[in-house]
């Protein structure tokens, strides 16, 4: 019995050590990737920073790309869960959520995830660097992590806007993603222009500003309706018309 107890303790210590090593590798990779980019970091750099054997990167993650995928998924999973939770809450009691509620469910978790206490600032830097140096790898990670979730929200947006085609909604969803991404990665511009009065570091305040702006864009007339509208011609005013007359 004593021997069994010792074996259990040894197995527990071994498992904890293994988890600790794996966690150190993930944390080191995230820090280095956010600082130097994916291409600027080697497996040896990560292993040295984590004080681990470089062979363990291949053992645990299948290589550097697998390690990046682990870092990316760790940030995306809570974001997707919170989006799904909010959308479900707004859809409670068998009612359809409003356009603003669907947008809030999508936008608010995105902006809250950029907070420093969540490691969001580091992750935002990593995404920006990946976009610049290895867009194909970023596209693959985004597709793996967000395609299913995005389809759920596109469907909800289509339901809110039956007058739009799916293609109309997809274009506007694309612009929504751009607004969120720039707000998260480039907050300094508006702070400079507003002399600090507008601060995107406050997710709640930024969400309140962004939702009505995006909602107006989604509610805009379809482009085919706008392009087919007849142009209104204004009559030319004859030269000299109105001269010498006093206004009422």
Can you give keywords for this protein?
248 residues, mainly alpha, Tetracycline Repressor, domain 2, 11 helices, elongated
Q: Determine the CATH superfamily of the domain at 69-220.
A: Tetracycline Repressor, domain 2
CATH architecture of the domain at 69-220: Orthogonal Bundle
- The rounded Rg comes to 26 Å
| End-to-end C-alpha gap | 108 Å
Strand content: under 5%
Shape: elongated
Summarize model confidence as the mean pLDDT.
85
Number of helices: 11
Order of helices and strands: HHHHHHHHHHH
Largest sheet: none
Low-confidence stretches: 5-15
Q: Helix proportion of residues, in percent?
A: over 70%
The third-level CATH topology of the domain at 69-220 is Tetracycline Repressor, domain 2
Task: State the secondary-structure class.
Answer: mainly alpha
Number of strands: 0
What is the CATH first-level class name of the domain at 69-220?
Mainly Alpha
